[in-house]
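Tip: read the tokens left to right.
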């Protein structure tokens, strides 16, 4: 297996972000990540996709519930590990580099506290950021990073 740096250079991310494809906040998050993921370590799939649904169920989640955010670390390897909700958000921040990496200090907080903060944002995301009729259509230069595209 090739090293992670070589995969990133070839546009093959190390980590997979699973997001709600019809959520306005999630769509903005994906756009934010695409703009700041300088090394291309993230690939993307919507929770509504076949890949997203399968990975959520594999991680013990309910694919029918679109209330959570998932990240699968090293998703192309046997050592893949899933994070959800607040822990997923902290993982993503840590992988982006400075200044976002500083948010990783919040990992010292108990998971219940981190998830409570995440759940508060998730509860209001449709009301504040809207709901889209269809999933985000990525710009051509980013399409290879959306694994179900």
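Filled-in amino acids:
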């Amino acid at each position: 297996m090739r090293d992670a740096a070589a995969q990133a250079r070839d546009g093959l991310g190390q980590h997979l972000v699973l997001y709600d494809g019809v959520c306005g906040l999630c769509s903005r998050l994906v756009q934010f990540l695409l703009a700041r993921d300088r090394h291309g370590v993230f690939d993307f799939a919507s929770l509504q996709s076949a890949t997203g649904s399968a990975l959520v169920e594999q991680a013990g989640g309910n694919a029918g519930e679109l209330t959570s955010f998932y990240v699968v670390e090293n998703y192309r390897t046997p050592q893949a590990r899933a994070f959800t909700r607040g822990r997923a958000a902290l993982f993503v921040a840590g992988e982006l580099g400075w200044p976002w990496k500083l948010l990783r200090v919040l990992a010292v907080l108990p998971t219940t506290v981190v998830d409570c903060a995440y759940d508060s944002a998730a509860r209001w995301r449709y009301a504040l950021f809207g709901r889209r009729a269809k999933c985000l259509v990525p710009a051509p230069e980013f399409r290879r990073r959306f694994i179900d595209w």
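The beta strands are 15-19, 42-46, 70-73, 81-84. The first helix runs from residue 4 to 9.
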